[in-house]
Write a structure and sequence with these properties.
198 residues, Rossmann fold, 43% helix, binds adenosine-5'-triphosphate, binds magnesium ion
C-alpha cells in the first residue's frame, strides 16, 4: 500500500477530488478533519476564527496507528490522507504529496458560496496566496517530491485523472513539482495585491 497525502487551502477541493479518485481506483480516503471530530481529537474550538483546534499529538498518534493497521493489509492499493493540515503525517509514511491550488478570485467565490463570513474567506485566500500549505511541506525532511496541481478552471474529473496518472506513474510527476504556482507574483504583476491584503 502506498500513501498519498493531499493538502491545500480550504476550498481547493481536497475532499471532492480525493473521493472522486477513490471511486476510480483501489483507494481509501481518510479525511483528517472528519477523523478529528469522530475520534474526539479536538483540543478546543476557536470561536473567533470559527474553527476547531486539533490536538496535534493525539491525531499524529491516531494516524500512525491507522497506517500500521493498513500496512498489514493487502488492499487497498492506496490510502489517501486529505486535509489542510495533512503535513502532520510523519514523513516516513508518505509516498506522494499533492497540494491542490486555486487562483485567489476563484477560491474567493468557492468559499463565498459555502457561506463563509468575509473575514474567514480573506484569511483563507491570503493563506493560499502565500502558499502556506506548500511551505509546511517544504519544512519537512521528505524523501519524495512535493507536487502541486492548479485546479482553477479545471473540472473535478480532469484533476482526478491527473492524480490517478501520477499514482499509476503514467505521467511524469516532474511536471508538477512545486514552484510553478505563484499567486503573489501574479497579483503583483497585475497590481491587484491590495484587493486581498490591507
Ligand atoms: N477543479 C476543481 N477541483 C476541485 N474542486 C472544485 C473544482 N472546481 C470546482 N470545485 C468545487 O470546489 C469545492 C471544493 O470543496 P471541498 O470541500 O472539496 O474542498 P476542501 O479542499 O476539502 O476544503 P476543506 O479544507 O474546507 O475541507 C467543491 O464545491 C467543488 O465542487
Ligand atoms: Mg475537505
Amino acid at each position: 500500500m502506498e500513501i498519498l497525502v493531499v493538502s491545500g487551502t480550504p476550498g481547493t477541493g481536497k475532499t471532492t477530488i480525493s473521493n472522486n479518485v477513490s471511486n476510480c481506483i483501489e483507494a481509501n480516503v481518510v479525511s483528517l478533519n472528519e477523523l478529528a471530530i469522530s475520534e474526539n481529537l479536538i483540543e478546543k474550538y476557536d470561536s473567533k476564527r470559527e474553527t476547531s483546534v486539533i490536538d496535534n499529538r493525539k491525531i499524529v498518534e491516531y494516524i500512525i496507528g491507522l497506517i500500521e493497521e493498513y500496512k498489514n493489509k493487502e488492499n487497498p492499493k492506496f490510502l489517501i490522507i486529505e486535509s489542510h493540515f495533512s503535513d502532520i503525517v510523519p514523513e516516513q509514511y508518505i509516498n506522494f504529496v499533492i497540494i491542490l491550488r486555486c487562483e485567489p478570485d476563484e477560491l474567493y467565490n468557492r468559499l463565498k458560496s459555502r457561506g463563509y463570513k468575509e473575514e474567514k474567506i480573506r484569511e483563507n485566500v491570503q493563506s493560499e496566496i502565500l502558499g502556506n500549505c506548500v511551505n509546511y511541506f517544504l519544512n519537512k525532511p521528505l524523501n519524495v517530491p512535493i507536487l502541486e496541481i492548479d485546479t482553477t478552471n479545471r473540472s473535478i474529473e480532469s484533476v482526478s485523472k491527473t492524480i490517478i496518472d501520477i499514482l499509476m506513474k503514467k505521467i511524469d510527476s516532474n511536471d508538477f513539482i512545486v514552484g510553478k504556482v505563484d499567486w503573489l507574483e501574479k497579483l503583483f504583476q497585475e497590481d491587484r495585491l491590495e484587493k486581498f491584503f490591507d
